[in-house]
Design brief:
The chain has two helices and eleven strands. With 307 residues, it is mainly beta. It folds into two domains: 146 residues, no CATH class; 91 residues, no CATH class. The strands form three sheets. It has a five-stranded antiparallel beta sheet, with no helix packed on it. A hairpin with a 5-residue loop joins strand 8 and strand 9. It starts with a helix and ends with a strand.
């Protein structure tokens, strides 16, 4: 009789634990974050998933925490900020009535069809953020590969001597053809450093060669239109097919045209910020450390005059 009574009590306990009052969330998000920039006083950084319909939401006050997306001065050094009323940073785990549409969380007026079922917010914990810049000048070559002398400092590598280090120079050889455009990309990685094109077969690949076809005329002077863009100047080859002039070593394509100057060094730098949450104190989430994910953030165009 005692054993039967104990079994009955255990069954009631298990049923109570399964009625929705006690839940334990297993996080299975893609860790690729989106961001709402349209709210006046804060950024909304979030990750969503369907089946179940849920979201992880981090709110960061503007402009206090701008540096968490753009801080170049402490690249790769983690920043730690606290969640709570004193900082204005909030973290919520929410479940919804139906599928969360693209960027619907950024709408100023909430979608009436999207109802929040559960909303759990932590009143403490930390956010650790690491900002990385893989390719400072977005020329396709990672910054570490633009350290030509291998001394660990890319600031003293300036192949063309124009005063702009290679890792900040979108035209590393000053031939008015951007580095990113001096690669046939046969390997599909959009990186001129790997499997580089070397038209003339000489020592340097095209992106570090100011006379790509070795015809004795600088690439930037093979520009009959004088628009600082040798890429749009063609000449017929022996088969009558138009080819880019500066890559064609032939007597019909050896004229040097008047000096037209250099292109400006303009690019958009992209940073990636990695967010990790610690000690958030939400018992429903089965984790003490949450890899919230990463957000890729383009910074405004950077321009350096090249005279």
């Amino acid at each position: 009789m005692t054993r039967r009574f104990f079994a009955l009590i255990l069954l009631v306990f298990l049923s109570t634990c399964d009625d929705g009052d006690i839940i334990n969330v297993q996080l299975e998000f893609d860790e690729e974050l989106d961001r709402c920039d349209n709210f006046e006083n804060f950024y909304l950084l979030f990750d969503t998933r369907n089946d179940p319909n849920e979201a992880l939401i981090l709110s960061l006050p503007k402009p206090t925490y701008d540096y968490l997306f753009t801080d170049e001065t402490a690249e790769n050094e983690p920043h730690m900020v606290q969640i709570g009323s004193g900082t204005g940073i909030r973290f919520n785990y929410r479940t919804y009535s139906n599928v969360i549409g693209n960027n619907v969380l950024c709408d100023e007026l909430s979608d009436a069809s999207l109802v929040v079922i559960d909303d759990y917010e932590t009143d403490g914990g930390n956010v650790n953020v690491t900002v990385t810049i893989v390719d400072d000048d977005n020329d396709g070559i990672p910054t570490e590969d633009e350290d030509l002398d291998g001394d660990g400092d890319p600031n003293n590598d300036d192949f063309d001597g124009d005063g702009i280090p290679n890792y900040l120079d979108e035209d590393d050889d000053n031939d008015n053809v951007k580095t990113i455009n001096e690669d046939d990309n046969d390997d599909g990685d959009n990186n001129p450093f790997t499997n580089p094109r070397n038209t003339d077969g000489e020592d340097e690949p095209d992106y570090l060669d100011n006379d790509d076809d070795n015809d004795g005329v600088l690439t930037r002077l093979e520009d009959p239109t004088e628009d600082k863009n040798p890429l749009n100047d063609f000449v017929p080859n022996e088969e009558g097919i138009n080819v880019v002039r500066f890559l064609y070593n032939h007597p019909t394509a050896m004229e040097a045209f008047p000096e037209s100057g250099f292109i400006n060094n303009t690019y958009t730098r992209t940073t990636t910020s990695f967010f990790i949450l610690e000690d958030i104190g939400l018992d429903i989430i089965n984790a003490t450390i949450i890899n919230l994910g990463s957000f890729v953030s383009p910074i405004e165009n950077v321009t350096t005059e090249n005279d």
